[in-house]
Amino acid sequence: MRLSTVILPIDRWHEGGRDKWRRAEELGFHAAYTYDHLSWRTFRDGPWFGAVPTLTAAAAATERLRLGTLVTSPNFRHPVTLAKELISLDDISGGRVTLGIGAGGTGFDATALGQEPWTPRERADRFAEFVPLLDRLLTENSVSYQGDFYAAHEARGIPGCVQRPRLPFAVAATGPRGLRLAARHGQAWVTTGDPKLYESGTPEQSVHAMRGQVEKLADACAERGRDVAELDKILLTGFTPDRGRPLESLDAFVDFAGRHTELGFTEIVLHWPIPDSDFAADQKVFERIAMEAPAQLS
User: Fold this and answer.
1) pTM as predicted
2) Alpha helices in 94-202 (DSSP H)
3) Which of 126, 138, 160, 249 has the most CB atoms less than 10 A away?
4) Which H/E stretch holds residue 144?
């Protein structure tokens, strides 16, 4: 079991932003991720910085920590420009980048460019085209492609990623089409659990739902003749009925993590505490979990 964190891009770099990323490395986290949004939920009217510049700065401020997005989506990204940024980021970091990628949702990003929000079907259709094209752009020197939603004309990917054949994809998915994309293109799979259980479900129901998700992922892998054990399984916490309770104490977290390790999860991601938000937590307890929980889960 690996323990990671996600640091929301809400702090000016020289007023606490850089310190969080450096502290994440000092605490021994496997990876530190950030959200790739233009704005997000209750943070919409406050500071919010871009994911790729933030990760670039974090790469320069750290040495060992893996870095990544949880998650990027097609809502405001194009595969050609995203591939160029990822190749650059992977180079600057010395090959420490993981791309968390999902189909996107109906939040502020969905309309920020002036478009109407896409239907669930259209999001799935775009995602099914976005991921394979991005895969090609990160592994081939030159790509030409004409699809229903995206196009590329002799788009160059030279020199490619430091990580070969490309940086890893962590595909966020729970539906059949997304799980097939994870099975085909992913080196990891990401879930936040079942969102329908967040308000009124129980932790037990959540564990049962995620067990079903893991089983469906295994089925999708089997269809491709792939062993599901090849994929890391990442749980982004904070969106299950447990909410912030796992961060109330070291014992509470070890119990939470143990139940999910039994489902096959190999990485658990905790939100860096943010006062007066849904991610509020005691910083000292959070840091104790980071330093002591992995040994208890090994």
Assistant:
1) 0.97
2) 120-139, 176-185
3) 138
4) strand 142-146
